[in-house]
Amino acid sequence: MLFDTHVHLNDKKYAQDLLEVMERAKNEGVTRMLVVGYDQRSNRRAIELAEQYDFIYAAVGWHPVDSIYLTEELFAELVEQVKHPKVVAVGECGLDYHWDTSPVDLQKEVFIRQIKLAQEVNKPLVIHTRESIADTLEILKAHDAHTVGGVMHCYSGSVEMARQFIDLNFKISLGGPVTFTNGRRPQAVATEIPLEHLLVETDAPYLTPHPHRGTRNEPFYVSLVAKKIAELKDLPYETVCEQTTANACTLFKMT
Is residue 255 within 8 Å of residue 249, measured between CB atoms? Predict the structure, then answer.
């Protein structure tokens, strides 16, 4: 029993073989998936998939790199989308200082608006942070994000920072990089952070786990992430599957 807590089945890379992708995941024991949106098109598609398949849930939000494109009309649509019964989280949202596409001040403004939106509907946040982890933590603290909590998606920071996010009521989600030979930071997090604070994800079609790097990622590869965590923690694979799934179900208020 596995829960891929961050997957982009709404990506056009799955347009030709989506049914086969989902079947492979189910055959690998992936019983639930959270399809995450990041702009108007992907948010709409995430909801469509969640409505169509009972094992799929949606998160809707606005990605920091696209902050410059968020109009009041688009935000009004997002406000309505987060009320959908199968939308279980707000995001992905956050900060990204790697790609120079949206000004930092605007990214922060859009991020804060989404924190407030999550608080209004009492749903957790899905956080994207790249080369911006200190500012991300500061904003989450300043705007009382602990009241809804959430998940640090594809976490790549230190163990010490992970503990600070956990103190703010956030889970730490690990993906393909924990399997990389140079994945020292996520491996340290997997080793040091207690299992009750961890989630697993693929971020498919991106960040394909070892030994399949260079190919399109798929949700059935989330098993490789769970197996690596089990190896690092010296725990049974089944224990990691069961606990991370339970963690996700609690966070997203699922039965």
Answer: yes
Cβ count near 105 (within 10 Å): 9
Q: Which residues of 161-197 are buried (b: 16+ CB within 10 A; e: fewer)?
A: bbeebbebbbbbbbbbbbbeeebebbbebbeebebeb
211-231 residue pLDDT tens: 999 999 999 999 999 999 999
Give CA separation, 172 vs 29, 55, 102, 192, 196, in Å. Answer: 21, 22, 26, 12, 10
Residue 77 CA to residue 211 CA, distance in Å, equals 40
- Taking alpha carbons only, the member of 209, 212, 158, 223 closest to residue 184 is 158
pTM as predicted: 0.97
